[in-house]
Amino acid sequence: MSLTEFCSICSFPTANKFAIKPQIFILSRAFQRGFRPVTNTINSTGKQLAARLLRVQAGAIFLLACVFSLVQPINGYLYFWGVVGGGIAVMIPTALFAWRAFASGGARAAQQVVSNFFAGEAIKLTLAVALLVALLVFTTLPYSAVLSGYIITLFVQWLAPILFLKST
């Protein structure tokens, strides 16, 4: 759509260039380039950092699980899966929190951002406790492995602001 077509639709005079407001020129540029969504928003940055945190947590869980399974000559697989279970008990609630907290954004949705953040944190805490209790009560996995996986994954989460400081 050209500027003259846009002006004729909106019934703006095109005879005098100076009669058209500067906003029309901005709109005409948008029509020429095509509307492109803004991709570098706070939400997308937050989602990228959350995905990076989950990858680092998964790596820490895997390394610790390998160490536990190598150190324990008998039933090493139980220790491996205990560490993985303890780490997953932190990773799943963290992923749900990130999904909930970064669901909406922008200055106009400030109230919804705050309510999403608090709802996500409530879901995270409740689910983390439920998963940890379920692992400790309903499985035969070693407590030391489950708690080690849980603690190391939480430790990585607490260190995330320091680890990702230069990336933002």
UniProtKB/TrEMBL annotation:
GO cellular component: plasma membrane
Membrane topology per record: Multi-pass membrane protein
Major subcellular location class: membrane
UniProt cross-references to Pfam families, sorted A to Z: ATP-synt_I
Keyword annotations: Cell membrane, Membrane, Transmembrane, Transmembrane helix
TM spans (from-to): 53-71, 77-102, 122-141, 147-165
Subcellular location: Cell membrane
Keyword Transmembrane part of the UniProt annotation: yes
Name of the featured protein: F0F1 ATP synthase subunit I
Organism of this sequence: Pseudidiomarina aestuarii
